Amino acid sequence: NTLTVGYLRGRSLNNTDHNSAPNPRGPIVVAVDFSTDSRAALNWACEVADWMQSSVLVLHVVHDSSVAPDYYKFDDKDWLAPLEEAAESRMQKFVEEMQKTGSGFKSLESLETRLVVGRPVPNILEVAEEVDARLIVMGSQGLTGLAHLLIGSKAEQVVRMAEIPVTIVKGPRK
């Protein structure tokens, strides 16, 4: 289940156009929060990256622990680790688990990862611009109903503010 949204604004997703040499644009940026939807987003992005002969940058924005105190906790030793170290450990485990799934995507085996600290939406957009990303991919997670309309999800904010295409991917539902 995917939804691609965004304005191309004169840019093409493809690596090449019919009359010129390959476009040296940057990677597909996949913003992850380690959820089921993030796993689906990374798999989808790797499939597209292989088709486009592109690389994949997996991005996680380390958020304030007061919002979700045990978000980065794997085991008791993580309680004592600085937030960035715990997030790095979680990112490493996430990527290793994804690579073990054996999806067969070449780009999944050569992922670049990056952690940044701060607010998710502006950091996702800044990193995408910095690396000249051709596409942003995110999992779909958010509230439903009226609160969702009033507050808006991070994915929706990225869709509204990004100057490149954004694809929102839903993971399997039970």
Tell me the major beta sheet: 6 strands, mixed
* Rg from Cα: 16 Å
Strand order of the largest sheet: 1-6-5-2-3-4
- Mean pLDDT equals 79
Query: How many helical elements?
Result: 5
Spans of 5+ residues with little confidence (pLDDT < 50)?
5-12, 15-23, 142-148
Strand content: 15-25%
Provide the structure class. alpha/beta
How far apart are the termini? 14 Å
Could you give the order of the helices and strands?
A: EEHEHEHEHHE
Helix content: 25-40%
Shape: globular
Extended strand count = 6
Task: Outline the structure in words.
By secondary structure, the protein is α/β, with parallel strands linked by helices. Helices cover 34% and strands 17% of the residues. It contains 5 helices and 6 strands, in the order ββαβαβαβααβ. It has helices at residues 36-52, 83-100, 120-130, 146-151, 154-161; strands spanning 2-5, 28-31, 56-62, 112-117, 135-139, 166-169. Strands 1-6-5-2-3-4 form a 6-stranded mixed sheet. Helix 2 (83-100) links the parallel strand 3 (56-62) and strand 4. Helix 3 packs across helix 5. The longest helix is centred in the middle third of the chain and has 18 residues, at 83-100. It is globular, with a radius of gyration of 16 Å. The two termini are 14 Å apart. The model is unreliable at 5-12, 15-23 and 142-148 (pLDDT under 50).
